[in-house]
Design a protein that fits this description.
Blueprint: E1 2-4, E2 9-14, E3 17-22, H1 33-48, E4 54-59, H2 70-75, H3 84-93, E5 99-103, E6 106-108, H4 110-113, E7 120-124, E8 128-130, H5 144-152, H6 154-163, H7 169-174, E9 180-182, H8 188-199, H9 203-236, H10 239-250
Parallel strand pairs: 3-4, 4-5, 5-7, 6-8, 7-9
Antiparallel strand pairs: 1-2, 2-3
Keywords: Isomerase, Peroxisome
GO molecular function: delta(3)-delta(2)-enoyl-CoA isomerase activity
Subcellular location: Peroxisome
């Protein structure tokens, strides 16, 4: 077993399982550019390492992730397809091996859309999910605008995306974002238990089965992601985003009444 604890993304390997832990608990594991780069690199390493059969992703300190680090995002917006954000999205989207998520606490923004690209997702009873893109003057990313309506239906997807309100494990399970609610306080034990089962399966059959399962949306997904990212990048330069971020740091309600 090997473990690295030198970065905000901890990577450990054991028995064919790579566990990635987002580790900025002081800011609820908000993802900055450095973390996007490291996550993309770790997934690329797992893709090339034949001994790795499955990847588990989780968050430290009882929180999956509070989403993007807004200060870092405003200072270092993803301006093109070479950005760390875009590279991570493509890397996870094309990752051929099974990915299992263990969700404790909050899964905000990318913390929820990331789950749409995991193959098994387990959550603690107190987990909360949120897609606050519109609230921030932005649009969804990671092909969420395609996948969520396929899972939840048009009106329910619209409710989650247009209102951007948090929802719990019952809703997440009903619409197919998570598999099971773990007993106790942590979902990681359940995720690792099932990761060991998956890791024992024939690797080629696993990869081919995963490819077949996601084929119905995979071919069009890149186009959707490109359209989303263009709109997302435009949103980052908008006065609506500036107002939302300013209100967040000033701890006040944003005022969008002056925009049309």
């Amino acid at each position: 077993m090997s473990t690295s604890y030198q970065s905000p993304v901890h990577a450990s390997t054991d028995g064919g399982i790579m566990t990635l832990t987002m580790n900025r608990p002081e800011c609820k594991n908000a993802i900055n550019i450095d973390m996007y780069e490291q996550l993309a690199n770790r997934f690329a390493e797992a893709a090339d390492d034949k001994s790795i059969r499955v990847v588990v992703i989780t968050g430290a300190g009882g929180c999956f992730t509070s989403g993007n680090d807004l200060m870092d995002f405003a200072s270092n917006p993803p301006t093109d397809e070479k950005s760390a954000v875009a590279v991570f999205l493509r890397t996870l989207y094309t990752f051929e091996k099974p990915v299992i998520a263990a969700v404790d606490g909050n899964a905000v923004g990318i913390g929820t859309t990331m789950l749409l690209h995991c193959d098994l997702v387990y959550a603690s009873a107190g987990a909360k999910f949120k897609l606050p893109f519109v609230n921030l003057g932005l649009c969804p990313e990671f092909a969420c605008s395609q996948i969520l309506p396929l899972l939840a239906g048009h009106v329910r997807a619209s409710e989650l995306l247009l209102l951007g309100e948090s929802f719990g494990v019952d809703t997440a399970r009903d619409i197919g974002i998570i598999n099971t609610v773990a007993e106790g306080d942590s979902s990681l034990n359940l995720a690792l238990e099932n990761a060991r089962k998956v890791a024992a399966q024939p690797p080629m059959a696993l990869r081919k089965t995963k490819a077949l399962i996601r084929d119905y949306r995979f071919k069009d997904g890149f186009k959707v992601m490109e359209e989303e990212m263009k709109a997302f990048r435009d949103g980052l330069q908008s006065p609506e985003f500036a107002e939302a971020v300013g209100a967040f740091f000033e701890k006040r309600a944003p005022d969008f009444s002056k925009f049309d």
